[in-house]
Design brief:
Layout (H helix, E strand, L loop, with lengths): L10 H27 L3 H17 L6 H25 L3 H17 L5 H15 L11 H21 L9 H18 L9 H12 L17 H21 L10 H23 L4 H17 L9 H4 L4 H29 L19 H12 L5 H22 L5 H11 L4 H29 L3 H22 L1 H19 L5 H23 L5 H29 L12 H18 L19 H18 L9 H25 L29 H20 L6 H11 L10
Length: 737
């Protein structure tokens, strides 16, 4: 804790201890105020459980001030839940129906980002508490007063007690990365026209710092709004830019004036992007300058000519054209970074004008963006949907059992269901075993305490805040068994002050936890028992299948030139974007689940780098968007045939990997094939091929490198991880990675 000498407490206990002080102070103050000060047991109960719900059960990311702000925003939702729960408790059937609807809605709200996902369990508890008898709308004012008081006290304690240093905002992280990109771009304009080792290391480190796993949850841009989407787009684009700069090979010839101009203006735009993210100034001027420099280099490479022999007459060797292609990809990444940053800061009032395909969300109203997000996950292939269905059905069943059996303190059974149900059956079973052991130990201690102390409520009043500190400090560190045991004693200390209690209260608590955990286990078995493990496999395979379609459509479009069917976008890009969203959400949950289900013999391909499939998907999407954008270049017949053949070969490789990840019912499981990224056709140099041909070849070659990383055995782990860090979401060449 702050003010405590370093090393006096282990770091984990110090962090949970700070949280315990905040929760215990808010909960105990509200409880004592109403129980002994105003003689209102109802308000006292709601004040205590309101603070415990959002302070103990919820896991809201961020600093204390950020958590307080999140609680303030959901305070009206808390009032609505208490009101709805109070009125629906009139009958068991209405309470059950309400639990099904509210439980699903709150759990499904996780699609909006880490904060709604973190606060959802606490909101569930705030509905569960009033949904049980007695049906007493006359006490609604006390319930709302107690809930509001508990939450206001919790917000105050979060904001004022043990203040935490604010982490670096994502905008500042992106601004620093843009500054690094600007430095690297300028370094490439002077001899030896390459980056030194420390510059390359700095670029890789800056890109790695924007990975979601490296960013605190509260700072991750994960919402559906325009500015949040654009900020996520900025991070993805600047990581792409950094990688392309870091691995641009040094030429063996003098740099052309146009190439140097592109790199200098890219550096200027990266600097302007950093200033936009920090001070809000628009990068429109440098954006226009880089667009002009890029157009000049494109024309120099024969990129705007309809004459198949234009590139050959320009006198550039194929190696020079490859270099031009790589530099133009740097320009594309810098332009994407500047446009995304302008939208991240100014939203729909951004000054940088771009084609609407890449930034489709910048002109869409906010309700429509929310609808896109909800609709995209409203299906059985979304892990958010699966989790919402699982927990809603489990809570509904628990409420039905508690209502039909008139279970004493039935909301304890629902609380057990809520807190012990996990996304996989194995995790749920392991959690329940520990929870029952801890609850049994807590019940024995509770029975002994109630027997010895009897009706001396002053003893319970003294013990309650001390036990809160212990429970909320030790429980999160030692695990679910300790947490359930300590919480069992805690609720006994609370209810012993509300009504005379005997040792039988411990028996009721044990029964409730047993019933709630059993229901959680049953629905963990019936509803997607393997959690994201199965879904990760299906989502990755579907992502690669969709990517294969986009690769074929893109190469056919480029080979067809002006005769392409869809002149501004390759077919399948929207489907690929949707597949990416589902795969990324499955991967995020997969990272938090046990790995014991992924071994050989359980139907799962062994040694799969799942993040590499996401890299391949992003790379396919961004490369396709760039290559089919106008102006259109007509390829010579030989180059067109080569592009189509390479596209079909790459699509076949993607389908081969997808079949290994998700084999059909009559297909035996096979190891993920190791794709060779080197193929002689990549080095082909058709006569008169323009810059667009070499850009396509660079794109396909880097996709082949992506596929090699999907099988962990294909490359050393360190190298694979480094490539993933550097090129996650990249749309450019991975040839030199």
């Amino acid at each position: 804790m702050r003010g405590v000498p370093a090393g006096l407490f282990p770091a984990a206990y110090a962090a949970s201890g700070r949280r315990a002080v905040r929760v215990a102070l808010a909960a105990a103050t509200g409880f004592y105020l109403f129980r002994y000060g105003l003689d209102s047991p109802v308000a006292a109960t709601y004040a205590l459980f309101g603070a415990v719900a959002l302070g103990g059960l919820s896991r809201i990311p961020g600093t204390g001030r950020q958590r307080a702000a999140s609680m303030l925003r959901v305070l009206p939702v808390c009032w609505i839940l208490v009101v709805v729960g109070t009125y629906l408790s009139v009958r068991t059937w209405s309470a059950v129906a309400g639990m099904l609807a509210v439980g699903f809605a709150l759990a499904f709200s996780a699609v909006a980002g880490p904060r709604p996902a973190g606060v959802a369990p606490g909101l569930q508890l705030l509905y569960i508490l009033p949904s049980f008898p007695p049906y007493d709308p006359g006490s609604l004012d006390e319930r709302l007063l107690g809930t509001t008081t508990g939450l206001v006290l919790l917000m105050a304690s979060e904001a004022l007690i043990f203040p935490e240093p604010a982490p670096t905002p994502y905008r500042e992280r992106a601004a620093r990365a843009a500054r690094t990109a600007a430095h690297c771009a300028r370094a490439l304009t002077v001899p030896p026209y390459g980056l030194k080792a420390h510059d390359r290391s700095a670029a890789e480190e800056a890109g790695r710092g924007l990975r979601s796993l490296m960013v605190p949850e509260a700072e991750r841009p994960a919402g559906p709004g325009v500015r949040v989407r654009a900020l996520a787009h900025t991070g993805l684009a600047v990581r792409t830019l950094l990688h392309r700069l870091a691995w641009l090979p040094a030429p063996s010839w003098a740099e052309e004036r146009e190439v140097a101009a592109v790199l200098r203006t890219a550096a200027d735009l990266a600097t302007a992007t950093a200033e936009c993210l920090r001070a809000g100034t628009s990068p429109a001027g440098p954006y226009a300058e880089l667009s002009s420099a890029r157009a000049a280099l494109w024309a120099l490479s024969g990129g705007t000519s309809d004459d198949p022999e234009a590139a050959a007459r320009s006198g550039f060797a194929p190696a020079v054209l490859r270099r031009h292609a790589a530099v133009l990809e740097i320009a594309d990444a810098a332009l994407a970074t500047g446009a995304a940053a302008d939208r991240a800061v100014h939203g729909r009032h951004a000054e940088v004008e771009v084609t609407p395909e890449r930034f489709w969300y910048s002109t869409v109203p906010a309700p429509v963006l929310w609808w896109h997000r909800l609709r995209g996950h409203a299906g059985r292939r979304s892990v958010f949907f699966q989790n919402a269905v699982r927990i809603a059905l489990a809570l509904t069943a628990a409420r039905l059992v508690a209502g039909l059996d008139t279970l004493p303190h039935g909301f304890w059974a629902m609380l057990a269901t809520l807190s012990l149900t996990r996304t996989t059956l194995e995790a749920t079973r392991h959690t329940i075993r520990l929870a029952l052991t801890g609850t049994l130990a807590g019940a024995l201690l509770t029975a002994a305490t109630l027997t010895l102390v009897g009706t001396h409520t002053n003893v319970y009043a003294v013990l309650l805040p001390l036990w809160m500190l212990l429970a909320f400090t030790v429980g999160p560190v030692r695990g679910v068994g300790w947490a359930q045991g300590l919480f069992t004693v805690l609720v006994a200390l609370v209810f012993a002050q509300l009504a005379p209690s005997t040792w039988k209260l411990a028996e009721v608590r044990m029964l409730d936890v047993l019933i709630g955990s059993t229901i959680g286990a049953v629905f963990g078995l019936l509803a997607w028992p393997r959690g994201a493990h199965d879904e990760m496999r299906r989502a990755a395979a579907e992502l690669l299948r969709t990517a294969a379609e986009v690769v074929v459509a893109t190469t056919s479009s480029v080979a067809g030139g002006a005769a392409t069917i869809v002149p501004t976008a390759a077919p399948g890009q929207r489907s690929l974007h949707h597949a990416l969203v589902l795969a990324e959400s499955a991967y995020a949950q997969f990272q938090s689940e046990p790995r014991t289900l992924t071994g050989a013999g359980r139907g799962y391909p062994a040694s799969v780098d799942w993040q590499a499939t996401l890299i391949a998907g992003h790379h396919t999407l961004w490369g396709s968007e760039r290559l089919v954008a106008p102006p259109v270049t007509v390829l010579p017949a030989s180059a067109a045939r080569m592009v189509e053949a390479l596209g079909e070969r790459m699509a076949g490789r993607m389908l081969l990997v997808s079949a290994a990840l998700d084999p059909g019912g009559d297909t035996p499981p096979t190891p993920v094939p190791r794709i060779d990224p080197v193929h002689p056709e990549f080095d082909a140099e058709p006569v008169g091929a323009p810059r667009r041909y070499y850009a396509v070849v660079e794109w396909l070659e880097s996709l082949a490198a992506d596929l090699t990383r999907i099988s962990r055995g294909a490359s050393p782990p360190a190298a694979a991880d480094s490539g993933a860090d550097a090129r996650f979401g990249a749309g450019g060449s991975g040839k030199h990675a």
